[in-house]
Amino acid sequence: MLDQEKTFEPLIVAFCCNWCSYAGADLAGTSRLSYPPNVKIIKVPCSCRVDPIFMLRAFGKGADGVIVCGCHPGDCHYSTGNYFTRRRFALLFSLLDFMGIEKERMRLEWVSAAESAKFARVMNEFTEEVTKLGPNRRLMDIRNLPEGYEELGRGPHREVLDAQAPHARNIPSVVKIEEQMKARATKLLADGVVDRVLAWKAGDHETMPEPAFFDHPSQIENMVYNKYCAHNLSKYLMVAPWLGGKLFDGSTLIFLKPCDSYSFNQLIKENLINLEKTHIIGIGCGGTVQVEDLEEVGMWEKCGVCTKIHHPVGDEIIELENNSPRLDKNARFATVEAIEALSADDRFAFWQSQLSKCIRCNACRNTCPVCNCKRCVFSNNKYDMASKVNATEFEEQLFHIVRAFHVAGRCSDCGECSRVCPQDIPLHLLNRKIIKDINEFYGEYQAGQDIAAPEPLTSFDLNNDGQAGKN
Amino acid sequence: MQMPDMLIPQVGVVTEIIKETPDVKTFRVVNIKGNKAFDHMPGQCAMLSIPGVGEAMFSISTSPTNTKYMDFSIKRVGVLTEYMHDKMKEGDHITIRGPYGKPFPVDTELKGKNILFVGGGIALAPLRSVIHYVFDNREDYGYVDILYGARSVADLVYYKEIEKSWTQRRNTNVYLTIDRPDDEWDGNIGFVPDYFKKIGFSTDKVVVLCGPPIMIKFVMAVLLEMGFKKEQVYTTLELRMKCGIGKCGRCNIGDKFVCMDGPVFRTDELDHIPNEF
Amino acid sequence: MEKIGFFVCHCGSNIKATVDPNVVLDGVRSIPGIVVAEQYPYMCAKTGQNMIADAIKTNGLTGIVIAACSPRMHEATFRKVAEAAGLNPYMVEIANIREHVSWIHKNKEEGSQKAVALAKAAIAKVKLNAPLFPEENSVIKRALVIGGGIAGIQAALDIAEAGYEVDLVESSPSIGGKMAQLDKTFPTLDCSACILTPKMVDAASHDKINIMTYSEVEKVEGFVGNFTVTVRKKARSVCMEKCTGCGDCWNKCPVKNIPLEFDLGLQNRKAIYIPFAQALPLVPVIDREHCIMMKSGKCGLCQTVCQPGAIEFDQEDELVTQKYGAVVTATGFETINLDKFGEYAYNDSKDVITSFEFERITHGAGPTGGELKRLSDGRKPKSVTFIQCVGSRDISGRGKPYCSKICCMYTAKHAVLIKDKYPDVNVNVFYIDMRTPGKAYDEFYRRGVEEYGVKYIKGQVGKVVDKGNCLTISAVDLLDNVKMELETDMVILATAIQPVPSAKPLASMLSASIDTNNFMTEAHAKLRPVESPTAGVFLAGAGQGPKDIPETVGQAGAAAAKVIGLLSKDVLLSNPCTAMVDINACNGCSLCAPVCPYGAISYGPATVNDHGLKTIERVSHINQALCQGCGACVVVCPSGAMDLQGFSNKQLLAEVDALC
Amino acid sequence: MNKTYKIALGNLSKLYGRINETQQIYLPVRRGGTLNFEKWHESAVVDLHGLKTTNTPKDLFLPQSEDLYTAKMDGTNIEIITKDFFDNAFVIFGVKACDIEAIAVMDNIYLSKHPVDMYYEARRKNAVLVSLACNAPKNACFCAAFNIDAANPKGDVATWILGEYLYTQAQNGKGKAFVEDIMGLFEPAEADDLLGLKAEIAEKAQSLPYSKLPLESFTGENMMKIFDHENWDFLHRACIGCGTCTYTCPTCSCYDIKDFDKCSGTTRFRCWDSCMYPEFTLMAHGNNRLTQKERFRQRFMHKLMYHPMNYDGQFGCVGCGRCINKCPVSLNIVKIIKSLGVEVAENANA
Asked: Pseudo-torsion of CA C91, C95, C98, C101, nearest 10°?
C-alpha cells in the first residue's frame, strides 16, 4: 500500500492473458529482465476476460495504475478475444478521461509470448509514469486507506459549467394525434385485436398524466396525449413478472414517441418483447416539457436536441404534420464537447460536484429501457458488487461508470435517465460521450435503429479498430 | 453486560457444533468469558453474524433455565448459514446480539395449562426452548403433548434427545411422524395435520404451533375443526429481520413489527394484520 | 470445513536467493483456513510431491496453494499430485513467485513482500474454487499434416506407421519441399534426392497416407480431438487416375517462357509441367494463367497428345471437408527478399546470387546442368566469394534479428563442392562467426579449410560492385583489422530464411499463436518444443524456427509421437474451466452469442423459480464441449448471470482485493 | 411568547460566519442546478427563497450511510471496535414547516419507543433546528391537508422573511440559548409585523389544489378494508419500483445493515433502504412481497395507516410534495389518498 513518509511507491495491478502476455512475463523472468516489484500480475484466460469492474475495483481498493495485457490482435488464442478488449478499453479510457481521471493511470498493451523485452520495458515505463503522477486520488474508495492515513481534504465542490437553461421553444399541439390515438385504441380494443392498450391517462392535474393500461374501450375516454407525456413506455412491456404484477399473456397496443420507438426496437432486438402479442403505433411528437410543482418550466433537454422524428419500428404511424427536428445535428453533442474542452481538473471537479448529489435512488436504472437485468449486479450479492448507497465518492463514480458501460452500444439516447433524476444530474452526458466515441472510432451507430445491425461492443471491424486502441 | 446500543453485538465463541441432520447443525454459543451472552425468555431470538458474510435472526433453542450457554439450530439455506455450515469449526468466534422479540407467555397465558406442542421440521428449535422451560418448571404446567413431524428420519431434529429424555418425562406424550415411509422407522407415517386428526386431542389445551407456512395453514384448519379457538393457539412468524428493534421497517406487517410485537403471535391477532406473511 | 495447504518452493536457489520463504510462510500463516504451511527446496521433485500428497491425505485438505514457478510450468504436475491424493485437481492454485518475483527483483525484502501479496491472492482464489470435472469427448483417429516437405513427409510416415490415417496437404504440385531443390546435404555430402525420394515414394505408396498436393487449408473449426478442416484441392486440369506421367503433354506444350518456381526462376517451364523429375505424384499441372487454351481456348495440344485422355480443362476446385484428431504444421521456410540490401548489388548483377540459387546451379538437373558458370556471360569463374549472415542477425530492421542457423554449414558445403570439382577456383568466405555445432559439422568445416584451401575471412562486406567482367568487394578484415578490396567473379549471399507467407493465416485459422517473426510459437521453449499452446496442434520443421534437416526429421518424429499419443486415447478430457449461466438471473438478451468465437452459446426456454415465482423464460445455454473458457461472454453479460468456472467474477475480485 | 428579533437579509452571511465559528451550519445551497441542504462555506450560493430542497433534513439525522462498528478479523477471531457517537454541534437553517414536522415523525420512530436509537439521538441532541416560514407555497405542497401551519413553523427557532429582514423568534429553551448566543447581530422587532405575512401565507396554503384531502377514512378499523381494496390493482401499474419516492421523502426512515470489508477489517454500516425494492423482504426461501403491487401498497399503507395507528394519529406524510415532483412516472400519495379515501368514505356510509 502507499505510505506518505517514504518516496511514493505506486501499486500497479496487471491483468495478463494466459497465452501471450503471461507467457511474455514468464520469459522476462527466465531472461532475468528486471522491472519494479510494484507490478502485481493476475492471470486471466484472455484479455477479453478483464471486466471494467475489475479495473475499477482495483483502483477503488487503492491501486495507482492498472494495465491490461493481451495477445497482438490476430494472435489471440481464442481468435477474436482481444478485438473486443481493444474496443471496450478504448471506450473505458476515453470515458474515464472525460470524467477527469488521469488516463496515464491505465494502459492496454499487446505483448506476445516471445516479447519478454517489451514486457519488461512496458512495466518499467508504466511504473515510472504512474510514480510521476503520484497516488491515485480521483478513483479511490477512501475507506480502503490504511488506518491513520490523513484523508485527502475534499474541499467544497467547485462550479465549473453553469447548469443548462432549458431550451425555450414553442411546442406544436398534438391534440389531433390524441384524437386519432383514442379512435384507434377504441377500435382495436373493441375488435379484440388487442386485449389492452398502453398509453397515458389523465392524472388529477393537467400536468401530471401517468402511464396506464386500458383494458376496456370505456376507459379510453380518460386516455390523454400532450406535451407532458414525456415518459418512455417501452419498458412496461418487457417480460418481467416481478415488474408487472400477474403475468399478462394477452396482446397489447402500445403508443411510441419517436425516441421511445428506438428503445422499444432495442428491447425487441434483445428478445425481451413478445412481438406477436404487441401492436405498435408510432405517434408524432412535438417535444415534451419539464414540470416543477405542477407548473411548466421548459422543454426537456432530450427534446431540445432531439433529431429523431422517424420511427424505426411500428405497425402504424400517426404523423405530426410539418414536424422538423428542433436543432441542428451537432447540438446533441455540444455539452459533451464543452466538457471535453475543459482541463482534466475541471472535468473532475464538474463530475465530482454533479455525482456528489446522487442519492442512489435507482430511478435512472429502473427507468432506463436497456438497464433491464432481472437482478442488477448492484442488488444481488452473487456478484460481490452489491451496494445500495453511495457511502463514498468512489461508489458514486463506480455506479455511474458501470451503468454507462453496461448500456454502452445499446443506449438509444432517449434521455430518460436525466429526466427522472431527482437531483437533476446530467447523466445522459456519460452515455452521449460513449455514443460520440463509438461514432468517431467505429462509425455512426444509432442503437435501436436496425435490429440486424451488429452492436459496437459485441462486434469488431479489422481495419478501423486499430486507431482507437493505440492510446 | 448490555452494549451501549442494541445494534452493536458482543463477540461470542462457538464452543460446540453438533450435526443434527444432513442440513441442520446446532451451534453452542457463549461469550468471550465462557458464560451465557445474555438472559432471554423462551421463544426469543438473537442476531448471529460473521463480519463480512452476513447477519441473521435465529431462535434460541435452549431454555432460560440453562444458564451456561445458548444453542442455535440452524438449517443450511442462505449465504450466512452456508458459511456457518461449511466453513466454521469449534472455537471460532461469532458475534451475537439480542434478545429480540416477545417471548411465549410462559408465565401468563400458558401457566397452569395443559400444553400441546405441534412442530414441523426445523421449527422444533423455538419450541425446544419452551419445552425445556416447561420441563424445568414441571409443576407449573399440566399435561404436555408434543407432536413433531419431519420429512424423513434423518430430518428429525434432536431425535436422540427426544427418544432418551422427552419420552421419559412425567405426564408427557410424544408423537413423532415422518412424511414418507422409511424401513428403519416403525412409528407413524404421514403429515402432521393428518396425524393430528388421527390422534384427536381434547380442547382443554393451549397449542404452541411452529412450522412451515403450509403446515400451519392445514393444522389451523384441523384445530378449528376440532373445536379449538384461535385464542388458544400461539405460533411464530418467520420473516426477514435486520435491526431487530422495530426501526428498520423490514418486518413491518400492518401496524405490527414482527421483531418487537412477535415473532410469537396468538393466531387471533394474526387476523388483525394484513395477510402478507 | 475449509482446510488450505500452502507450500513454498525454494526452487534450489532460484527463489530462495531473492525471496525469503519464511517471510512468505509467516505472511500467510494467520489467514483463516490455512491448516498446513510448509516449505521445501524442490516442490516439483518426487519428495516435494510426496510431501504435498501426505499433507492432503493426513489433514484432509480441501485446497492447496503452491508458491513456486509459473503455472505454465508445473500446474499440471501439481494437479496430478492432488488428484492422486484424492483432491479434485482444480482445487490447486499456483502463486508465480519465480518468474514474476525472484528472477526479476534483486531486493530480497521487496521480493518477499510481493511474494506474500501474490500468495494471498492465490489463497483468496483457491477458497472460491469449486471442484471441476473435465468432460470426455471422443477423438477422431485421423491426423492432418500441413506441408509436404521432409518434415511433413517424416511426420506423416511415422503417424501412418502407427496405423493411423493421415492426410498430407501440400500447396505446390508435388511433395518434397525445399529438400528436393538441394543438390548435396551436409555434412555427409550425400545427394539430397537419393535420401529424399525413397521417403517420398514410401509416403506416396503408404496405404494410410492420403496425399493432397496443389491444395491449401481453407477453414478450421473445432478443437483438439475434433477438428473439422476444409481443404481446397485446386484444379490441376489433369485427371490424377488416368495420367501415367509419360510426359508427352509437357513436351508438346508450345508455351515455353514461364520461369520455373522450383528452379527459382533460373530455368523456364511449359504451361503444363511437373516441378522436377522425381515429382510425386508424377502428374503435371496446367498453369491456368499462361495456358493458351484456358486463356483463349485456341490450343489443347496436350489434350490431343494424351493417350489416356487425362487432360480435363473444365476441372473445378474441389472442397474436401474432413474431421481430424490432431494437426501437424510443417509449413517450412523461404529465403527473405533482398530488395532492401542494395549494398550487395543482388538486383543489379546477375553474378550475385543467393546460396539457394547456387544450390540449383550445382544441381545436376539445374539450369547449368551442374556446371559452375557465371550467369552473366557463362564463363567459368576463377574466384567465388561467399558472404555470410545476409539479413540474419540484422539489427538494422531490414532483415531478421535471429541467426538462420543453417547458412554456415551449407556455405561450407558449397565451398567444399566447388574446390572438389574445380580445385583451381579460389573460394573466399566473409563471415562474422562460424556456427558449426552439429555432429561432424566442425570437422567438415575444418576439412574445407585445411584440405580444400577455402579462404575464410572474418569480416563484414561493405559493398559489392559489378565491374562487368568481374565484381569488386570492399570489406574489412577484422582479424588483421585492415580494409581490403577483393576482386572475384561470382558472389554468393547466404540469405536469411523466414516462414512462408501462408503460415500467418494458417496460424489464425488454427488459433495457434505465432511470434512476431511469424514462426509458430511452441507451448514451452524447452519442455514442449513440438506442441503449439493450442491443444491438438503440433509443430515440425523450419516453420517453428530455423533448423537443418537432421533436426527437422528429429522434430517431425517427435511431433508424430505426440500425435500418436493423442490419437491412441479413445477419450479426451476437455477443459472444464468453461462458462456457466445462472438461469435465474439470465435475461435471454442474447448479448453473449455474438462474442463467442466457438459458437457455443444458444438460447431456449427453461423453467425459472425466482424465489417462489415459477415462470418459463428464454435463457442462454452453453455447449460445454465447444466452450474453451475465454470469458468473452462473461464480461459482455451485464447482469453477471454468465460466469466462468475456474476464473469466476468473485474469484478475480477476491484476487484484486487480496493484492490491493 | 419569546421575544422577536430581526436581521437585515444583507448581513445574513455575517451571521453565518459568526455561527460557523462554533458549529457547522447546513442550509439550502444552490449547486449544479439543484437546491440541497449542504454545509455552509464562504463561496456557497445560499438560497433561502427556493421553495424546497431536493434532499431533506433526514440526511443529517439518518445519514444515507453511517458506520455502526468495525470488526477486526484476525484469523477467525473477531474484535469489535465501536466508535463514539456523533457529537459536533450543528445548526440546520431554513427548514420549512413540513420538514420540521417530518423530523417530529422520525423522532417518534427512533426515539419514542424502547430501545432508543443512540445514533439518531446523538445527532438530534447536537442539532439546532432553525425553521423558515414558506412565503410562496406552490401547487405541489399539501401540508395544509395534514394541518401543518406553514406560517408558524415549529423547530427550536422560527424565522420569517419579511421585506428586507429576517425575523426570528426562539420557540424553546434550546432556541433561546442559540439566539442569545448570537444576539449581537440582531435588532429587536415587533411580533405583530408578521401578522400580515402569516395571514397571507395561511391563505395561500389553504388555496392550493391539494390542500384538502379525504384523510378521515384512514383509521385503524378501515385497515383491512383499505388493504384489500381492488383500486390497488390499477394504482400501482405504472410504478417501476425505483425508490425515488422513498429516498426523497423526509419521513421514509427504513434502513438496511450491510458490511464493507476493508483491508483492516469489516465495517458494518447501516444505509437507507426502500420498501419499493424487490430485495427489501427477500429471504432465502421466498419473498412475502413478491410483486410490485404489494410493495407499492406497503409504502402508502405504512404512511397513511400503520404509522398513525402506532403513533396516535400522526400521519407518516407531511405534504411536502417532493414525491409529486420527483416520481419518474407521475405517481404520488395524493392520488392514493384521493382514490381510496373517497371510495372508502362513500361505501362506509352507503
From this structure: 170
Query: Looking at residues C87-114, what average pLDDT do you find?
Result: 92
Range of the domain at B57: 10-99
Residues D303-327, buried b or exposed e (16+ Cβ, 10 A)?
A: bbbbbbebbeeebbbbbbbbbbbbb
Arithmetic mean of pLDDT, B27-46? 91
Which residues face B71 on adjacent strands?
A: B28
* pLDDT tops 50 at residue B1: no
C-alpha cell at C226: 475434433
A103 touches chain C (CB under 8 A): no
Band the pLDDT of A22: cuts 50, 70, 90: very high
Q: What is the percent of chain A with per-residue pLDDT over 90, rounded to a whole number? A: 54
Question: Does pLDDT of C558 surpass 90?
Answer: yes
- DSSP 8-state symbol, D184: G
Q: Which residues of C are less than 8 Å from B86 in CB distance?
A: 1-2
From chain C, pick out residues whose CB is under 8 angstroms from the CB of D285. 611-612
Using an 8 Å CB-CB cutoff, list chain B residues near C2. 86-87
Residues 87-146 of C with CB under 8 A from A: 96, 98-101, 103-107, 110-111, 113-114, 117-118, 121
B86 and B144 share one domain: no
pLDDT in tens, A79-105: 789 999 999 999 999 999 999 999 999
- Nearest-Cα distance to chain C for B88, in Å, is 6
Range name among A146-150, C271-275, D24-28 with the lowest pLDDT average: A146-150
Report the half-sphere exposure of C107 (CA within 13 A, side-chain side).
8
Q: Do B250 and D280 touch (CB under 8 A)?
A: yes
Mean pLDDT (whole number) for B205-227: 89
Nearest CA in chain D to C34: D75
Query: Each residue of C180-212: pLDDT tens digit?
Result: 999 999 898 889 988 999 999 999 999 999 999
- The interface pTM score, or ipTM, of the predicted complex is 0.88
Residue C438 DSSP label = S
When CB atoms are compared, the residue of D242, D264, D291 closest to A245 is D291
Tens digits of residue pLDDT in C563-612: 999 999 998 888 899 999 998 888 888 899 989 887 789 899 998 877 66
Q: How many domains does chain B have?
A: 2
Domains observed in chain A: 12-144 (3.40.50), 175-318 (no CATH), 333-464 (no CATH)
Q: Are residues B62 and B118 in the same domain?
A: no
Residue ranges of domains in chain C, CATH in brackets: 4-127 (3.40.50), 142-234+317-332+500-567 (3.50.50.60), 248-305 (no CATH), 335-498 (3.50.50.60), 579-644 (3.30.70.20)
Share of chain C above pLDDT 90, in %: 66
Decide if B44 is inside a domain: yes
The number of residues making up chain D comes to 350
CB-neighbour burial class of residue C289 (10 A; exposed 0-12, middle 13-18, buried 19+): exposed
In this structure, what are the phi and psi dihedrals at residue A28, rounded to the nearest 5 degrees? -60, -35
**Co-location of B89 and B120 in the same domain:** no
Write out residues 274-303 of D within 8 Å (CB-CB) of C. 282-283, 285-287, 290
pTM: 0.81
Instruction: Please tell me the distance in Å from D253's CA to the nearest CA on chain B.
Output: 7
Q: Which of C30, C611, C612 sits opposite D74 (nearest CB)?
A: C30
Task: Give every strand in the sheet of A12-17, ordered side by side.
Answer: A39-44, A12-17, A65-70, A106-110
Q: At B214, is the secondary structure helix, strand, or coil?
A: helix
Q: Measured between beta carbons, which residues in chain C are less than 8 angstroms from residue A37?
A: 101, 104-105, 107, 110-111, 113-114
- Answer whether residue B3 shows pLDDT above 80: no
Joined grid coordinates for residue A288? 415534451
| pLDDT (0 to 100) of residue A1 | 46
